[in-house]
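Margin note: ligand = fe (ii) ion.
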Amino acid sequence: MKSFPVHDASQGTADSLSDTPGVFETWAIKSEQLVNVALTDSVIKILDAFYHDRHYARFYVLETIARVPYFAFISVLHLYESFGWWRRADYLKVHFAESWNELHHLLIMEELGGNALWFDRLLAQHIAIFYYFMTVFMYALSPRMAYHFSECVEKHAYSTYDKFVKLHGDELKNLPAPEVAIKYYMGEDMYLFDEFQTARAPNTRRPQIENLYDVFLNIRDDEAEHCKTMKACQSHGNLQSPHSNPDYREDDSCTALPQTDCEGIVDCLKKSVTSQ
Ligand SMILES: [Fe+2]
Ligand SMILES: [Fe+2]
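Resulting structure:
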């Protein structure tokens, strides 16, 4: 699998550095990651079997399920917020922006005809339902594991698009870009586009879309940004909206909110009991 430059979350904040994992935690992280890699490899094998040379249909399936984990994270965090266990606006904002970005990848694949066959729609939508409940369960048990699983999925998406643009680059340069891609990547309101890219400052990435090659190149680069964000999320409390990151922001006087948080359902229950 092709790799790409990724910010190492384990070298992130001073807080995360001070939390050196113990033997049990190291064992738990390794087990979670082994399960995630096995799960991802199984899904890739299914996709390879069905979509060996039907690229747009494969991308349609991938993008239908790509939005699901972000919706699942938001669902669980929303529930915690209702119980008063949690409040971290940055996580909700960033996960929604990630979901919005994946939605536009999906719309692009639909405009390219990837959803033409009923079988592909049926398969994608059923995987999406299963994936939603699985992610909700996994995220409630271990947000770190759920974020790592999403990192594996995003890494696979990056690698798939990277191979595609390298193999079909010349052909793609002669094809027009879908209208939805031009509107998304070159629109006037780029707030949500900047919001999901937590490893870079706002206004530092502005794609130019002239043909289908540019579209796929930017989708690939989006997947790399998702991967970096999912990696950062695995260190608890590490995620910051690019618009509220003190390294990037100019004035946060209107956006500062009281922050409480917890790390999965067990931690939430523990904190809600001990804080009363
Ligand atoms: Fe995507
Ligand atoms: Fe993705």
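The domain at 22-247+259-271 is CATH 1.20.1260.140 (Ferritin).
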